Amino acid sequence: MLALLLSIENTATVARSSLAESFRALLMAFNIRPLVLSGPSGGGKSTIITRAMHDYPNAFALSVSHTTRAPRPGEENGVHYWFSDKESVEKMIAEGDFLEHAIFGGNIYGTSKKAVENVQKTGRICILDVELQGVRSIKQCDLNAKYILIKAPNLEVLEERLRARKTETEESLKKRLKHAKEDLDAVAADPNLFDFIIVNDDLDRAYKEFISAIEPELKLAASSKTH
User: Fold this and answer.
1) What residue ranges carry the coiled-coil annotation (predicted)?
2) What is this structure's pTM?
3) Is residue 3 one of the residues assigned to a domain?
4) Of the residues 51, 72, 124, 161, which is catalytic?
5) How many distinct structural domains can be found in the chain?
6) Has 136 been annotated as catalytic?
7) Tens-digit pLDDT profile for residues 3-53
């Protein structure tokens, strides 16, 4: 009987220890601050994100946004977007389920709180790639995020990069540049909007600056994988 009781106690102790380790890992995961990244198209934001995800394959995950637009060829539900009908998305917005949302081209795009939580549960750094409007919306929530702006050194360089892509018409190029100027002017008028502003005049230097800015999150993400 004593042996049986000791065996039960040992099993319970192991179970409690395992549960405690799981709880510590989950707590550590939720202490990893999400990254809210913003910046005009052509600033190098996507390039830096792609490079970071390649160099640290287990550290990052992009939040999957909702949209009311129809899927494009090759897009998968739950991978590229959560494709939803307008009524469902509007209901989620009304119930406060979204961190941010905006309307582009008549379609609603938004980031749900659950999308970020799902990434945090994995112990990875959640990346939210949003417009300036989205940054302001998320700032009004209780998300303990790190806000980073990545931009070209000036509008002239930005225009050169956009032209080099050869994906813009003159009309769309003018709209992008106008939008970029408005956003950058708004950032200049509100210096506390971002925790870090990275000027991408040299990609390697800008990338190193980005990695340095998120070093605490990278360490936490690495630690969460060892528990």
Assistant:
1) 163-190
2) 0.81
3) no
4) 72
5) 1
6) no
7) 544 454 555 454 444 544 443 444 445 589 999 999 999 999 999 999 999
